Amino acid sequence: MAYDYSSLVNTTKHWVEQALTAGWINTDTAQQLSNVDARTPDTLFNHNGSRPLIVAFMGGTGVGKSSLLNRLAGKAIARAGVERPTSREVTLYHHHSIAIRHLPEQLPLAQIKIAEHDDDSRKNVIWIDMPDFDSTEQSNKHQVLEWLPHIDVLIYVVSPERYRDEKAWRLLLAEGGRHAWLFALNQWDRGQTEQYEDFKQQLHKAGFAEPIIFKTACAEVLQADEFAALESTIRSLATEHIVKQLEHRSSQARKDQLKQSLQNTSELLGSASAFQQLPEQWQQQWRRTAQILQQGFAWPIQQLARHYAEQTSDLLSNPRAAKLQLWDDWAEARFDDALDEFVSNADQQGIPLNPLKKQLSALREKAPKIIQTQSELSARQALANPGNVMHRSFLKLMRLCEIILPLAAICWVGYQVFIGYYHSNMSEVDYLGVDFAIHSSLLIAISWLAPFFILKKLKPSLEKSALRGLNKGLNNAINMIDGEVLLAIENVGNQHAEQAKQLAGIIEQCSIADADRQSIDSNSPLSRMLID
Ligand SMILES: Nc1nc2c(ncn2[C@@H]2O[C@H](COP(=O)(O)OP(=O)(O)OP(=O)(O)O)[C@@H](O)[C@H]2O)c(=O)[nH]1
Ligand SMILES: [Mg+2]
Predict the structure, then answer these.
(1) 143 CB under 6 A from ligand 1?
(2) What is the pLDDT of residue 500?
(3) 81 and 214, same structural domain?
(4) How much distance in Å is there from the Cα of 70 to the middle of ligand 2?
(5) For residue 79, what pLDDT band results from cuts at 50, 70 and 90?
(6) Do the strands 90-95 and 125-129 form a parallel or antiparallel pair, or are they unpaired?
(7) Which of 192, 219, 237 is the last residue of a domain?
(8) Is the domain of 182 the same as that of 311?
(9) CATH number at residue 143
(10) Rounded to the nearest 5 degrees, what angle is found at the Cα of 51, between the Cα atoms of 47 and 57?
(11) Ligand 1 lined by 225 (C-beta under 6 Å)
(12) Mean pLDDT calculated for residue range 308-327
């Protein structure tokens, strides 16, 4: 199904609006795409079915455009004269039955003169005299540009002296494919064949293999010229069939141009492969930065560990006790440098930076918090459970020994005392001597003191625990930041894919040709009036 040009323009405008807001295109690109013209000759009428052919005289000042229209009307309906520029308004000349009810808002109504006629044989053509295009009057040029989209056939009027006019010529080249073109070499009463040939040559260069040029003369004393042929050619074009052909052609030319602009825009969005390379590039960058950060944090971490160890009780009971911060200006500068370098690499690969910057800017604020919370959390965990598992198990065992060993020694000594007493009663042997008393006291003391000193000596250092915790927290934080940036990159990649998909969809719609488009016979006069 072919898409209507104006609906394509609307879809484009919607896309542009959201892409601009999301930062995928800049204001210049958005402006260019928003300026795409949705107007066609068709939009001028509130009509059902067929519409008249719209023909306009266009060209430099003083070549005789208004004189040509006046000659057609048989009276002075348009201002013509020696004053330069003469016309400062557009003159419409049409059959009274044609209702141009809906003049688009952009057309400056105050600068439109309308002359109606009742000649039924001329019913199917609307003639328009436009002001000059190369004018010193900006408003003249503006009016011409506003009217151009509404015109089917442009009659490019030149004079023998003024057929090499730069500005009008550039317009011809730019607008070429959108209109059908006829040429009038006016003031032929003053012209020469060489000038005609030269003009023809110029038109060859512009792409017209066989341009239709009418030599006309509208001087006060009329002489034989090709004015009648000009009018009859126009009349022969004013059929429903040709109007439809021109409409389709113009709409296709506009779609092609829109497609071209969209393709240019899609190149500005960056390639999918560039986005795929971003995670790897970031990780390379982050490995270097993480190393620098770890080296740079070594000293502050030691300070912080000492601080924690000194204020353990405070720290564990009061979360606000740890006032020292690991993340400082130096760390922030390193992190910003890493992100900036990454963004500048992305820029070199043609990736639009705004969406990426938007995603990363949130991380610039988040990174210090990640470092702070992770290092603090790990330090607290390490202080709550100092030492490693083996260490802690051994200490537990020692604590047990501290109770069991003296108890066992006391029990053994008690037993010996009882047995000694019993034997001395039975055998009248001396009761346990002084030696026993000393040895048993020593045994009890040693069995208690040994675990006691071991426990004391092996008690883990809080500073070391805090240091280990802080290092672990720092590593966790570095991995988390890496993960956050990768997530941000993935988000941007997904957004890019979505934008590119939407844009590709519109481009594809522009490529679908109208099914009922009829080809133009290459031998017909109409084909001589068209260029691509
Ligand atoms: N000799 C001669 N003079 C002509 C011819 N056509 C127009 N003129 C004169 O050229 C002058 C300019 O004619 P206009 O019809 O006002 O020219 P225009 O192209 O409408 O000029 P702007 O409105 O300024 O763009 C007038 O004085 C006309 O009388 C012609 O074929 N031969
Ligand atoms: Mg004029």
Answers:
(1) no
(2) 95
(3) yes
(4) 10
(5) confident
(6) antiparallel
(7) 237
(8) no
(9) 3.40.50.300
(10) 125
(11) no
(12) 66
The two tokens of residue 30 are: 């958005």
Check whether residue 349 and residue 405 sit in a common domain.
no
Cβ distance 473 to 378 under 8 Å?
yes
- pTM (2 d.p.): 0.71
Domain housing 407: 389-458
Alpha-helical segments (H) within 385-433: 389-427
- Write the residue with the smallest CA distance to atom 29 of ligand 1: 81
By C-alpha distance, which of 237, 36, 509 is closest to 501? 509
- Quick check: is 426 in a domain? yes
| Contact assessment for residue 159 and residue 64, using Cβ atoms and an 8 Å cutoff | yes
Structure tokens that stand for 59 in this block:
């060209």
pLDDT(226) > 70: yes
83 and 182 within one domain? yes
- 254 Rama class: left (phi>0) / alpha (psi -120 to 50) / beta: alpha
334 shares its domain with 406: no
Residues 221 and 129 grouped into a single domain: yes
Which range, of 169-178, 233-242, 433-442, averages the lowest pLDDT?
169-178
Q: Per the domain annotation, does 403 fall within a domain?
A: yes
Give nearest CA residue, ligand 1 atom 26.
Answer: 81
Exposed / middle / buried, residue 55 (Cβ in 10 Å: 0-12, 13-18, 19+): buried
Domain-embedded: residue 159: yes
Report the atom number in ligand 1 closest to the C-alpha of 60.
Answer: 25
Q: Is 70 exceeded by the pLDDT of residue 316?
A: no
Q: Which of 267, 275, 473 is nearest to 382 (CA)?
A: 473
Element at 441 (helix H, strand E) = helix 434-458
Phi, psi of 39 (to 5 degrees): -85, 145
Rounded Cα gap, residues 159 and 132, in angstroms: 13
Residue with the two structure tokens 């442009």: 154
Q: Residues 334, 352: one domain?
A: yes
User: Is 37 contained in some domain?
Assistant: no
166 lies in the same domain as 196: yes
Name the average pLDDT for the chain: 87
- Our mutation pick for probing the ligand 1 site, out of 58, 66, 67, counting the most ligand atoms within 8 A of Cβ, is 67
Pairing verdict, β 112-117 and 90-95: parallel
Q: Is the pLDDT of residue 46 over 70?
A: no
The number of folded domains in the chain is 3
**How far apart are alpha carbons 512 and 455 in whole angstroms?**
85
Question: End-to-end distance of the chain based on CA atoms, in angstroms?
Answer: 23
Which of the two residues, 44 and 11, has the higher pLDDT score?
11
Residue with tokens 């006291």: 441
pLDDT digits (tens, 9 = 90+) for 432-471: 778 888 998 999 999 999 888 988 888 777 888 888 889 9
The two tokens of residue 367 are: 């990174």
Distance CA 181, CA 44 (A): 20
Mutate to test the pocket of ligand 1, among 157, 218, 230 (most ligand atoms within 8 A of CB): 218
Distance CA 88, CA 135 (A): 10
